[in-house]
Write a structure and sequence with these properties.
Elements lengths: L1 E9 L2 H11 L7 E5 L2 E8 L11 E9 H5 L9 H12 L11 E12 L3 H11 L5 E2 L2 E4 L5 E5 L3 E7 H7 L11 E8 L1 H11 L11 H16 L4 E2 L1 H10 L4 H16 L2 H7 L2 H13 L11 E2 L5 E2 L1 E2 L11
Antiparallel strand pairs: 1-4, 1-5, 2-3, 3-4, 5-10, 6-7, 7-8, 8-9, 9-10, 11-14, 12-13
Length: 321
């Protein structure tokens, strides 16, 4: 459901006194309190010369890693009470308020797909790297072999091999991290604040921490980038199109559409076709369980199995979602 959370709490004068009695001295960016899955860092917000209202204050940023907090791979709605209770107990370290106002600064929705074969995990990443260079306000980054990002100033989508990430950090994966291909959708403060202004949705944890919101943001942010439908070779796609009930001329046009994407790129194809035509062809392929991004050739898994089809990533049968 969610991997990472960041919450902000503005300290009242009595909170500062309360902390000083326990910590004696502290400074900007000190980590004051830390528990498994929870970390509280203190910051000082200075007032700018042009500001007419007093804005100087100390505040706390709480960083929450839900996997460490719960010691499990994926949080669900059933874990919400435990999460809130642990967070409330942790806030007692620095707040005297009965119900401290915690403002959401960042939330990372995630899905973990359990894919035991290293070759298949890498194949998915390589295929997604062929997606849009630019989509909406997102720009793709492919600096690393085992990950791909689509980011703008307020949101980020990242797909990466968790095993490889941990290996590069010289860490062994925990049970719930083993063989994981992870997809994350990160909402930054800028997005959360704009969303509040545009929709009236308050920037508090209650409004975002749920499986329903996870599903909504994956449908809204991830699916348009990675598309639906299974990844297939050119021959496999052509066979399915030929067996479909589409008219002969439409079958021909769908094959030409796939060939255009293969020979150029998804971005070039989108520019070559009218908006409605492009959307119509994508939908037609989706109805046949064909992803517009194709496998170049069959490949061999670590077990020596020839593969000419990979299931749609968010429909993966071994999913740990």
């Amino acid at each position: 459901m969610v991997h990472t959370l960041q919450l902000k709490y503005t300290l009242a004068p009595q909170d500062i006194i309360y902390i000083e009695k326990r910590e004696e001295e502290f400074k900007h960016t000190d980590i004051l309190f830390k528990e498994t899955g929870l970390k509280a860092t203190i910051y000082f917000r200075r007032q700018y010369p042009y500001e007419t209202v007093d804005h100087e204050n100390w505040y706390i940023i709480i960083h929450i890693n839900l996997q460490e907090l719960l010691n499990k791979g994926t949080a669900t709605n059933a874990d919400l009470e435990v999460i809130y209770n642990k967070l409330s107990d942790f806030a007692n370290n620095f707040s005297l308020a009965d119900n401290p106002r915690l403002i959401l600064q960042r939330i990372d929705f995630k899905r973990d797909l359990i894919i035991p074969d290293n070759t298949i995990r890498q194949a998915y990443i390589d295929l997604i790297k062929k997606s849009y260079q630019k989509w909406g306000y997102f720009t793709k980054s492919t600096f690393y072999k085992t990950s791909v990002e689509f980011a703008n100033k307020s949101r980020k989508i990242i797909i990466y091999d968790k095993n490889k990430e941990l290996h590069d950090k010289h860490r062994s994966p925990k049970t719930y991290e083993q063989d994981v291909l992870r997809i994350e959708v990160q909402l930054k403060r800028r997005y959360i604040s704009n969303h509040k202004c545009n929709t009236g949705l308050a920037d508090v944890l209650d409004n975002y921490l749920s499986e329903e919101m996870n599903k909504a943001y994956f449908n809204h942010s991830v699916l348009p980038v990675i598309f639906n439908g299974s990844y297939r070779t050119k021959e496999n796609s052509a066979k399915i199109i030929d067996l479909s009930t589409y008219r002969a001329d439409k079958k021909k046009k769908l094959k030409e559409f796939l060939e255009c994407i293969e020979q150029t790129s998804i971005n070039d194809a989108k520019e070559s076709y009218a908006v409605n035509t492009f959307a119509r062809y994508i939908k037609a392929l989706n109805n046949l369980d064909i992803n517009p991004i194709q496998l170049r050739n069959e490949f061999i898994t670590e077990q020596g199995i020839y593969i000419d089809t990979l299931p749609a990533l968010l429909k993966y049968t071994c999913s740990g979602v």
